[in-house]
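go over my protein:
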Amino acid sequence: VSSALHYWAERIAALGWHLQIYASLDVLHALSPALQGLTVPVVLDHFAMVTDATPLDDVRVQSVLSLVRSGCAYVKLSAPYRIQSAPTPDFDAVARIAAQYVHANPERVLWGSDWPHTNREPGKTAHELSAYRSIQHTTLLQGIHAWLPTAALRTQVLVDNPACLYGF
């Protein structure tokens, strides 16, 4: 996997692209050394899959935080329903995770809506159709305000950081 990451990083570097990785926390931890040496920006999707049940001092969490802290990776605050153990939104639990990323390096935090909120219904296989999740815009706004409690931080994460990454 490490050689594939380097191969694709070399191929996309001249295009100004980045690698976006949606993988388990275990995989991200294992890839951490390889991610440090890539020549393109790396975005870790969905809170880097740090669940609300994972202790923040877990070595896997610390390796991801180290990537963010050093500027080797961005983390995208998106799809909190993928990292929550409860079926209803727990903004405080997810806010604790978001705060760790912001504290590590606020310039490497992004936000995403994760629209259209894909889902796999219980009992369905990966190739069977499932209904999209119904996520209200007010829920998205609640998350943004819980995870990014100041106007300056919201501007940085919602405007400045994506402008830097995407060059606009």
About this structure: The mean pLDDT is 94. The first helix runs from residue 2 to 13. The chain is about 45% helix and 10% strand.
